What we know:
With about 325 residues, this protein is α/β, with parallel strands linked by helices.
Amino acid sequence: MANPHSFGTGIRATKAVIPAAGLGTRFAPATKAVPKELLPVVDVPALEYIVAEAGRENLKDVLIITARGKNAIEEHFDAAPEIEAALEQKGDTDRLARVRRSTDLARIHFTRQRVARGLGDAVAHAEAFAGNESFAVLLGDDIIDERDVLLSKMLDVQAERGGIVVGLIEVEGRFISLYGSIKPAGEVIDGVIEIATLIEKPKPEEALSNLAVIGRYVLPPEIFDALRRTELGKRGELELTDAMRTLGQDGVPIHGVVFSGRRYDTGDRQDYLRAVVRLAVEHPELGADFSGWLVEFAKGISADAIDEAGRTDQ
Ligand code: G1P
């Protein structure tokens, strides 16, 4: 059921762009001095999970787009000679390896977004980095559990069929206004669906389907020209979704890979807390003790404390 315009190069992308320029207002005041991307999920900053995912997919060059007040991100992906020396002296080789890991995941490059003009504008900063190649975009808010497959399949689909590939999840109607919404052009076959068009954060009644775009994209270099042709959206930002729709109208194929694995939206406080708890339970060093404590702790939570807000897990 290939789109007649499908044209893959057969070559998987080797570059990744990670926008990390947002203000993190949903997490203020924690984000006054600490970039939200560096908030720890157990003992690793959220952003390191994302860079590690890129590294695992052989996306050897990673461009992180930061902004004013976010220099700590560069520090994190640099060597830390004092901490390393102290750990060496203590003979803590395991932790030493974990400290050094952030510098070995990929070749990491940085650029800064000067004005907070949205995700599309952040991606536009990657034009020179991408050159003529397709590239992946990984949003720092979405941690995809490394045991579940998404980006790998997206890169394969893009190599085979070209154009744009986005990550999708099924959401309940009332949550669609948090996401880009897609209009399918066919059925889901082997987890892949052709997309007719897409819109940014519709009201529930305007949703095009129950499939929502999550923070993984593989984009062709034509996206930069489309971004230049795109007007600011409803929230006064340059939306990546709008530029992708423009490319779709130009005849560029858009596919979605439907994901049903474990995903943690660390940009949302509730989901962030769930991510910390889930990953702590599974942590090789902390898991057993922490789980024991958690079971006891949960017994002490009264049913009255659980209201509707506590049952919004998607
Ligand atoms: C962005 C995109 C949206 C997408 C979402 C996924 O929104 O604009 O289309 O569904 O990421 O997390 P944001 O969460 O940055 O507002």
